[in-house]
Amino acid sequence: EAIRCNPKFSAAYYNLGATLSGPTASYALTDGRTMTQQQLYAEGICCDPTDSTAYNNLGTTLSGPTASYALPDGRTMTKQQLYAQAIRCDPNYSAAYDNLGATLSGPTASYALTDGRTMTQQQLYAEAICCD
Predict the structure, then answer these.
(1) N or C: which end of the chain has fewer CB within 10 A?
(2) DSSP code at position 68
């Protein structure tokens, strides 16, 4: 109902996506569109490109650190890029730091964030604790 009333309400898309049982599970919207969990998260990003939760949630649906998803706006983002974008949108989003850390292969493996910081898996986990 929230999507029908306000089709640009990002949170409604990712909240609906979170109720589905997996990335390919789908829901029929009242406007006739049927959308998968991934499509709902991607639509949330399109409605609000600064919505950290939508980026993070879409990242959780991808199978490996380099698995990617093509967003409706033409960008293709890997799981790691989605988590890094969630951090860029909300530098205090602990789940995104934790999830990005989980994509790295070991405690000293690192990832370069868009803000210029390069963080190891250990540093990402520590930052998740600090933000929580």
Answers:
(1) N
(2) E
Q: Which are the contacts of 72, defined by CB distance < 8 A and separation ≥ 6?
A: 42, 43, 46
d(Cα 105, Cα 43) in Å, to the nearest integer?
30
Contact call for residues 6 and 16 (beta carbons, < 8 A): no
Centre a 10 Å sphere on the Cβ of residue 43 and count the other Cβ atoms it contains: 24
pLDDT of residue 6: 67
For 12-35, write each residue's pLDDT tens digit: 888 999 999 988 999 999 889 999
The pTM of this model reads 0.92
* Structure tokens given for 88: 């860029």
d(CA 8, CA 67): 27
Q: How far apart are CA 107 and CA 109, in angstroms?
A: 6
pLDDT in the model for residue 57: 96
